[in-house]
What we know:
Blueprint: H1 8-12, H2 16-29, H3 36-49, E1 53-57, H4 60-70, E2 78-82, H5 88-95, E3 99-103, H6 117-120, E4 125-129, H7 140-150, E5 153-157, E6 165-166, E7 169-170, E8 177-181, E9 195-199, H8 202-211, E10 216-218, E11 221-222, H9 233-243, H10 246-263, E12 279-280, E13 286-289, H11 293-301, H12 332-340, E14 341-344, H13 352-375
Parallel strand pairs: 2-3, 2-4, 4-5, 5-8
Antiparallel strand pairs: 1-9, 6-7, 6-12, 8-9, 10-11, 13-14
The structure holds pyridoxal-5'-phosphate.
Pyridoxal-5'-phosphate binds near residues 59, 60 and 85.
Amino acid sequence: MKVPFLDLKAQYEPLRERIGVAIQDVLEKTAFAGGPFVEKFEAEFAEFCGADHCVAVNSGTTSLWFVLLGFGIGPGDEVITAANTFIATAEAITFTGATPVFVDVTPDTLTMDPALLEAAITPKTRAIMPVQLYGQPADMDPILEIARKHKLYVIEDAAQAHGSQYKGRPCGALADAASFSFYPGKNLGAYGEGGAVTTNNAELAQAMRILRDHGQSKKYHHVKVGWNGRMDGIQGAVLSVKLGELNGWNDARRRHAALYNELLADLPGLELPVESDDSRHIYHLYVVRTPHREALMQHLADRDIATGIHYPVPVPRAEAYADLGIAPGSHPVTEAAAEEILSLPMFPELAREQVQYVCDAVRSFCEQKVSASATA
Length: 376
Ligand SMILES: *Cc1c(COP(=O)(O)O)cnc(C)c1O
């Protein structure tokens, strides 16, 4: 048996005809950049998130950048985010001219630790950007409370959390705004690049619509210095088709996670992902922990099982951010996790037999380790 990390072809097969029709429609109407197919998807995705507005753009990194610009964040400002994230979260902050300030995560969910926020706030802080990581929201209530107290914006980085919930409310409408990515491998993936912001703030939505279209209020009337951040018509059409499947796909991911949890329970030296009682985790990634990470990865690779590490270098330790002068050990939970985390295969089309095969392989590894240490 062979188990890929994800299988976009398996997801495409049953949609082949509908995707073909949708793309053909864009071609016939030559609605290539922005336009009616993007607007239709925006309305659908806003509704899916329970938000008043959705502004679609050309990537999740652009949407993070634009939402910060839309709130007027720039040079001299600080934005607090989680140390355990994909680098795009920090890049967007840096590209506004502001400085990213990283706080550590909680050891169980590996999302932003609200207990560390107050100490990170300075007179320059303008916003907090929690990351709804691996498909699970951060503990939003205390984050929102601290933000309210200090008059800071809260922006969800929900790039991994389409359809995830916190206390029964969907990601995308938990704070002042949320940023999503439709990179092909995300839970809702385009057939190219894409991203979007959702918000209940009409002014922010309007500012972002102007920003993504060269600062135009109407054609060739440039009221702001903007950018080209529009979403492709083809991506809008594809995403409309795929959005209808998202709840079913997320349910399938949750079923696979439940089976992993059952079959991997109580293995020595292996920690399973923690789903908070407050959240509906949608398992963009199923991340386990072991002190023998490299060996387990090799053991699985030898059995044709693909795995990943999200992420091997904490963003504050990235060479790109050396100039921030953040000392090693500043984010101990994130730094320890980076040495131990391993993402197992996770995508909706996984077969039950594939999950069982992965679990058998993980089990044989863990038991081998125990007998090796017993005889040592
Ligand atoms: C994927 C991702 C992004 C960036 O999205 P792109 O569409 O690839 O630009 C940002 N933040 C997080 C947490 C992500 O996983």
